[in-house]
Design brief:
This protein is mainly alpha-helical and 172 residues long. Among the domains are: 82 residues, Four Helix Bundle (Hemerythrin (Met), subunit A) (Up-down Bundle), CATH 1.20.120.1200; 35 residues. The chain contains six helices and no strands. α2 packs antiparallel against α3.
């Protein structure tokens, strides 16, 4: 086995075990910390695929900004066992069935997938130049629509967050 295969399996085991830690952890803060480890393991997979830009963006956006947001929301909500509603047996059964169906879909996808050897793959697959070329040729319309959507969301957040000025009757 090469060093890339060993690193791949190490990152895979780390991602799966920390993802299980997210699901099985009873403490929400511990669950978020496991999710951060999962994001770092996925970024390691991106680096193995020669997609360094996606790895850095994954770390900055997900492990950085969104996880800080999750931590603040969890801390502000002050979740504990007394406040949190307990899940019924029917809801747990629905979760197990949904997880089993997802597992079957993943197994079916893996069965029909083909694995290319590393020697036959191009070395510039994950480069930012190729990502930009595909983004601005094949997906230019969805990219522009999402940019207009983000712009309108920012304007809406500013309008909602802006306080109305109250007129003081004592000042002219």
């Amino acid at each position: 086995m090469s060093i890339y295969e060993i690193l791949f399996w190490f990152l895979t085991i780390m991602a799966i075990s920390s993802a299980l830690g997210v699901i099985l952890s009873r403490n929400p803060i511990t669950s978020v910390l496991f999710l951060i480890v999962t994001f770092f393991a996925i970024s390691g997979h991106y680096i193995l695929l020669n997609a360094q830009f996606l790895a850095i963006v994954n770390i900055i956006v997900y492990a950085g900004a969104i996880m800080v947001l999750f931590l603040f929301v969890i801390m502000l909500m002050n979740l504990n066992a007394d406040v949190e509603p307990q899940k019924g047996r029917l809801l747990q059964l629905a979760g197990v069935i949904a997880g089993g169906v997802l597992f079957l879909v993943i197994l079916a996808a893996l069965k029909s997938a083909t694995v290319l050897p590393l020697e036959k793959t191009s070395s510039d697959i994950g480069l930012i130049k190729n990502l930009g070329r595909v983004l601005f040729t094949q997906f230019v319309l969805p990219f522009e629509i999402s940019s207009v959507l983000f712009l309108s969301a920012m304007i809406g957040a500013i309008v909602i967050g802006k306080k109305e000025e109250t007129k003081n009757p004592l000042t002219p």
